[in-house]
Amino acid sequence: MMDQSTSENVQRLPATDDEFGGVVVEMKEHMDSDVFRTLLKASMSQWKLQGKKGVWIKLPIHLSNLVDTVVKEGFEYHHAEPKYLMLLCWIPKTNNPIPANASHIVRVGAIVLNDKGEMLVVQEKMGILRGLWKISTGTVHQGEDITAGVIREVKEETGIDTEFVEVLAFSQEHNVFFGKSEVLFLCMMCPLSFEIQIQETEIEAARWMPLEDYEAQLSVQEQVLRKYIIELCKAKVERGYSGFSPSPVTTDSNGNPSFIYFNKEDLNKKILDNSVNQV
Amino acid sequence: MMDQSTSENVQRLPATDDEFGGVVVEMKEHMDSDVFRTLLKASMSQWKLQGKKGVWIKLPIHLSNLVDTVVKEGFEYHHAEPKYLMLLCWIPKTNNPIPANASHIVRVGAIVLNDKGEMLVVQEKMGILRGLWKISTGTVHQGEDITAGVIREVKEETGIDTEFVEVLAFSQEHNVFFGKSEVLFLCMMCPLSFEIQIQETEIEAARWMPLEDYEAQLSVQEQVLRKYIIELCKAKVERGYSGFSPSPVTTDSNGNPSFIYFNKEDLNKKILDNSVNQV
């Protein structure tokens, strides 16, 4: 006859094993916090006995009544998105090797030149750059390719369709937003349409502007980055500057490729020489 | 005589205005959740009357007893770090224009070649790449420059001191860690020391390996990225491939520069030509 007091008979939280010797609890249904506390304590005892390492608890926002109980049990926050909170308890005495939360925002800036050598520029309605003619910039969405993000931003802000050419440069800056860092990719874009239709909510005005006029509005207060935009444009147009262009490398389960960006011209130099030799 | 019932006399949460027409509440001291609820409700009424937009509440983890109250008042999570949770309520009926949480992890891969054309490679103790000779890779810490991150990773894993040369390529991949994306910068590094001392906890072995041997372990199962590493090494060594190298652009309040990375060789092409003409 089974002993009713064995730990096998204590009810525990539903959990799945992860690949790193830990467990993941994904709470979904409403639960009284006292019931939850009892289950969590029993589960933690069991997981400790089993030598589990990281214990993850994911709480959707409608279960915010359980956050306090999880924290009191020794968990810390790992990350949060608008509709859920992820908490982590690292059981071993060793250092927690779990990667930290995402640390960077990825932004894109679009350098769009027409065949008169004019650049597509906008004025924003708000913010510290208000009144200044600047290139279209924006944040790459979660799960979005850099190439797609910059095409979307230019279209949204100016109505102009563009094709991605290459990354001319990128910058990294810290403490941009709640202590997070930013990588900004400056992208060379080829315009496929020319008639401007601005996004009324964020953009005050948009136009095609000669590079000299863009350069003329620079002041000593301007960031050096803005000066590089002009230098890079000129280098690209006048003397064949090579940026990084994308090639697919792997394909995910949804059939979407990942991309590697590199100096395709320089990588292909020898191949081209060989082709020439073979002719 | 003042009317004691005017809203000016109701106690409210301590808040500071932000630059975008919103307010920020940073809770620090313990507070009973009923007291907190009363103050929050009074504060929200006041902020709505004042036409405030985003209301931010930052709760350190020792105040997890207040999370449920904030959520019940209509807030969503914005982001969390181990020791705090940030909640947001967007009051206007318009779309919330507040940037989302950080979306990317930034990683570095170190291509370190000695003057015999051998590459510094490691074998990891754990993970899916266990047993494979691979380049040193690692995550850039929050607030850390890419250049500093890759020097640190190589030193930690192999004991080798290196100097940053340039970014040869970068890749972007999605759904790497809790739905977040990753940007991996492949960095060319110049070794300043050669004697290997491995980090015992994560690294099984490290060595200098001829590029042919590295190439020989490739299989059809390998990601295309690995093949590009060889192509990029060869292009760099044999025919002067130009990657992106860093230049300082701005300096933050702590005196630390931000960097822009670009094809310095191509940008300086004309300047060099001019110099030559002037000679």
UniProtKB/TrEMBL annotation, chains A, B:
Pfam families: NUDIX, Nudix_hydro. GO terms for molecular function: hydrolase activity; metal ion binding. Residues 103-231 form the Nudix hydrolase domain. Keywords: Hydrolase, Metal-binding. Belongs to the Nudix hydrolase family. This is Putative nudix hydrolase 6-like protein. It comes from Helianthus annuus. The lineage of its organism: Eukaryota, Viridiplantae, Streptophyta, Embryophyta, Tracheophyta.
